[in-house]
User: Fold this.
Amino acid sequence: MSETIFSKIIKREIPADIIYEDEFCLAFNDINPQAPVHFLVIPKKSIATINDIEEQDRELVGHLYIAAAKIAKEKGFADDGYRVVMNCNESAGQTVFHIHLHVLAGKPLGWPPYTDKLKV
Ligand code: AMP
Assistant:
């Protein structure tokens, strides 16, 4: 598994604004926020993309969502609402190849989330 900026954050080799940590995951504020609240929840285990999630990761991936909801409740925006997104590979805009949930909140979030005209 190749080293990413997120594995360096896990090892505290580079700084991040960490808001939550437990045995399995870490959450920190996104360096380039797209909403008033924008943080990432990442597993401590390196998994490059959604395509690389294996059956043995079932509980770990569920845990990321539970952590996201826990933080949302603690920070007080759970009832108001929020969006959780995980991008996979180039067309979805994935830039860091260590899976991560984007958690966005703090303003009405448009749908669909992309700005390009959809060609179907
Ligand atoms: P994605 O494009 O889905 O792979 O998302 C990667 C996210 O990581 C982007 O929203 C970046 O702004 C964010 N990011 C990259 N480097 C850092 C960093 N050092 N600390 C916090 N967020 C970062």
User: Anything to note?
Assistant: The chain has a mean pLDDT of 95.
